[in-house]
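// run 5 | inverse folding | seed 20
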């Protein structure tokens, strides 16, 4: 199905705005870092909130990401952008755990006599630890996406639910950045989704978080601040929206 992407025009005669997925990139408007402003098409954009769960509250609070994520969710709800809560979900017996054995645990501590590998989850399906943070308040009509691997796409209904709404642009937040956010962003990119990652709404180990935001994600997707994304979601009555059908992305 061909989606209709709004192109933001400064006037009726000309425009220097190109489209990129469910939004238009306006080269005439740039943020402090010199990056172009993205205006999001509300009908082609979805917010994916990844593993912002009670089990990870300490890390999330340390990153200070609850408040910004609440702001982003409210902004999305205000313009009808759907919210998808991707959350870890594993059997208590660990039968659906990944079978790949790494050198270390999540804190980069080597496995050994004093740190033995656990073949079962610390929090099983249905436990309070795997519930979305109460502050983020999932509502009727939101999407619950239980997942069993790092990518929110692997073995879930996420892509089907996005495609069924003609969504081709994802706002991606949560953590950990170097694990689930990275896995989901790579996967989304290879499925031809446009991705915007919002640093203030993400959590994880500080060094890895900074490295991915500065040195990895800008090569594969868009990285924008919470204020820039909310501005891009704000209807602009001073500009005319000219709709044209497009297939795929245009710059």
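// decoded
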């Amino acid at each position: 199905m061909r989606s209709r992407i709004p192109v933001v025009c400064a006037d009726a005669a000309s425009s220097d705005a190109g489209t990129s997925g469910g939004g238009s990139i306006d080269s005439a408007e740039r943020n402090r870092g010199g990056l172009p402003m993205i205006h999001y098409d509300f009908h082609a954009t979805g917010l994916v909130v990844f593993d912002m769960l009670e089990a990870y509250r300490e890390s999330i609070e340390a990153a200070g990401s609850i408040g910004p994520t609440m702001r982003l969710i409210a902004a999305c709800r205000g313009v009808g952008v759907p919210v998808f809560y991707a959350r870890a979900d594993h059997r208590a017996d660990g039968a659906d755990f990944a079978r790949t054995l790494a050198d270390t645990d999540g804190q980069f501590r080597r496995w050994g006599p004093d740190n033995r590998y656990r073949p079962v989850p610390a929090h099983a399906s249905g436990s309070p630890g795997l519930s979305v943070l109460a502050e983020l308040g999932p509502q009727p009509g939101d999407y619950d996406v239980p997942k069993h691997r790092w990518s929110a796409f692997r073995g879930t209904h996420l892509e089907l639910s996005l495609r069924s709404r003609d969504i081709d642009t994802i706002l991606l937040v949560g953590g950990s950045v170097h694990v689930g956010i990275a896995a989901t962003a790579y996967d989304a990119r290879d499925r031809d989704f446009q991705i915007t990652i919002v640093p203030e709404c993400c959590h994880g180990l500080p060094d890895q978080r900074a490295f991915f935001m500065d040195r990895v994600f800008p090569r594969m997707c868009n990285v924008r601040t919470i204020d820039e994304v909310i501005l891009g979601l704000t209807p602009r009555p001073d500009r005319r929206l000219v709709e044209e059908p497009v297939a795929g992305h245009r710059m």
